[in-house]
Amino acid sequence: MIVPRRLSKIFTQSTRTFTIVNRIQEKISSFLSSEVIEKPKPPKLIDIIGTLKNINYRYDYPQNLTKEQKEHMKRFDVFRYDPMSSADPPHFVSYYIDLDECGPMFLDALIKIKDEIDSTLTFRRSCREGICGSCSMNIDGRHNLACIAAIPKNNLEKSFIAPLTSMNVLRDLVVDMSNFYNQYKVIQPHLKRKTLKQPNEKEYHQSIEERAKIDGLYECVLCLSCSSSCPSYWWHSNEYLGPAILQQAFRWVIDSRDEYKEERLEMLGGDMKLDECFQVGVCSLACPKGLDPRKSTEELQALYKEYERKKARGERTIQI
Ligand code: SF4
Ligand code: FES
């Protein structure tokens, strides 16, 4: 029998609809007969310990060394982490170096590892003289500049190299300094004048005594070792300026050539600036340049109090 075309189409569509409805019914009945899904349970302590075992673990980099060869070399445990790779949790990799074939500083060891053993190791460095501040990291538990930190000669003691504490790691030993540099901008770290130079004036002069006031301040290399050691900075690093920046603020406030002292002090008042320093002093212990940011902040706090007193009396000028 020849079925008319239109009738055949209607028949095919009805058959398809019937099949779909049948499948939906099957799904619903299988869902209703399935077990009730339980809420996920909180992890047990044993699970947490298991997870931690996979973080901060250590392994020897494959250098094809025998046990005897390793005994004559120094072991460097270096922190490795790539936050962009979920398959690469934070861990330590041990590299062995013959100190007779390496320069005397930790930066020499890192450069030797990168050049000769593992080119994927990432760290910052520039001057190799302790003046650019870019190679700051934690070495054997202390913040330091790798280029001026001498390697202990005892082969039996391993050394440990990690990024600055409390900082976000971009890769291996490189931390994110953007927040720190933004905070540095806030204090306007440059000479500011209200009076312009006379036509025949070339420099802004200072007496020997005035110049001596910025000794112990201008040497700061902005390595962040002090701020990243400061408990107040750990808790409020987004808001609190921290010892490195406050020391630089002090440097410009007491520079005899600068004419914006009151404005600078006005800007420094408040919770997350001067008031957040409780004079703990770890910053000064951490400074690899031997500076004393705790004392600078203390002196800046005293200047600010004097400024506030004078402001309350209607006097706007402070003598430094
Ligand atoms: S005060 Fe010292 S530790 Fe702090 S940033 Fe300057 S050089 Fe580095
Ligand atoms: S490389 Fe410049 S301070 Fe270390």
UniProtKB/TrEMBL annotation:
<keyword id="KW-0411">Iron-sulfur</keyword>
<feature type="domain" description="4Fe-4S ferredoxin-type">
    <location>
        <begin position="210"/>
        <end position="240"/>
    </location>
</feature>
<keyword id="KW-0560">Oxidoreductase</keyword>
<dbReference type="InterPro" id="IPR050573">
    <property type="entry name" value="SDH/FRD_Iron-Sulfur"/>
</dbReference>
<comment type="function">
    <text>Iron-sulfur protein (IP) subunit of succinate dehydrogenase (SDH) that is involved in complex II of the mitochondrial electron transport chain and is responsible for transferring electrons from succinate to ubiquinone (coenzyme Q).</text>
</comment>
<keyword id="KW-0001">2Fe-2S</keyword>
<dbReference type="GO" id="GO:0022904">
    <property type="term" value="P:respiratory electron transport chain"/>
</dbReference>
<dbReference type="GO" id="GO:0005743">
    <property type="term" value="C:mitochondrial inner membrane"/>
</dbReference>
<keyword id="KW-0813">Transport</keyword>
<keyword id="KW-0249">Electron transport</keyword>
<dbReference type="GO" id="GO:0006099">
    <property type="term" value="P:tricarboxylic acid cycle"/>
</dbReference>
<dbReference type="GO" id="GO:0009055">
    <property type="term" value="F:electron transfer activity"/>
</dbReference>
<dbReference type="InterPro" id="IPR036010">
    <property type="entry name" value="2Fe-2S_ferredoxin-like_sf"/>
</dbReference>
<dbReference type="Pfam" id="PF13534">
    <property type="entry name" value="Fer4_17"/>
</dbReference>
<dbReference type="GO" id="GO:0051538">
    <property type="term" value="F:3 iron, 4 sulfur cluster binding"/>
</dbReference>
<dbReference type="Pfam" id="PF13085">
    <property type="entry name" value="Fer2_3"/>
</dbReference>
<dbReference type="InterPro" id="IPR006058">
    <property type="entry name" value="2Fe2S_fd_BS"/>
</dbReference>
<dbReference type="InterPro" id="IPR001041">
    <property type="entry name" value="2Fe-2S_ferredoxin-type"/>
</dbReference>
<keyword id="KW-0496">Mitochondrion</keyword>
<dbReference type="InterPro" id="IPR017896">
    <property type="entry name" value="4Fe4S_Fe-S-bd"/>
</dbReference>
<comment type="similarity">
    <text>Belongs to the succinate dehydrogenase/fumarate reductase iron-sulfur protein family.</text>
</comment>
<dbReference type="InterPro" id="IPR025192">
    <property type="entry name" value="Succ_DH/fum_Rdtase_N"/>
</dbReference>
<dbReference type="GO" id="GO:0051539">
    <property type="term" value="F:4 iron, 4 sulfur cluster binding"/>
</dbReference>
<keyword id="KW-0816">Tricarboxylic acid cycle</keyword>
<dbReference type="InterPro" id="IPR012675">
    <property type="entry name" value="Beta-grasp_dom_sf"/>
</dbReference>
<comment type="pathway">
    <text>Carbohydrate metabolism; tricarboxylic acid cycle; fumarate from succinate (eukaryal route): step 1/1.</text>
</comment>
<keyword id="KW-0004">4Fe-4S</keyword>
<keyword id="KW-0472">Membrane</keyword>
<dbReference type="InterPro" id="IPR004489">
    <property type="entry name" value="Succ_DH/fum_Rdtase_Fe-S"/>
</dbReference>
<protein>
    <recommendedName>
        <fullName>Succinate dehydrogenase [ubiquinone] iron-sulfur subunit, mitochondrial</fullName>
        <ecNumber>1.3.5.1</ecNumber>
    </recommendedName>
</protein>
<feature type="domain" description="2Fe-2S ferredoxin-type">
    <location>
        <begin position="74"/>
        <end position="164"/>
    </location>
</feature>
<dbReference type="InterPro" id="IPR017900">
    <property type="entry name" value="4Fe4S_Fe_S_CS"/>
</dbReference>
<keyword id="KW-0999">Mitochondrion inner membrane</keyword>
<dbReference type="InterPro" id="IPR009051">
    <property type="entry name" value="Helical_ferredxn"/>
</dbReference>
<keyword id="KW-0003">3Fe-4S</keyword>
<dbReference type="GO" id="GO:0046872">
    <property type="term" value="F:metal ion binding"/>
</dbReference>
<keyword id="KW-0408">Iron</keyword>
<dbReference type="GO" id="GO:0051537">
    <property type="term" value="F:2 iron, 2 sulfur cluster binding"/>
</dbReference>
<keyword id="KW-0479">Metal-binding</keyword>
<dbReference type="GO" id="GO:0008177">
    <property type="term" value="F:succinate dehydrogenase (quinone) activity"/>
</dbReference>
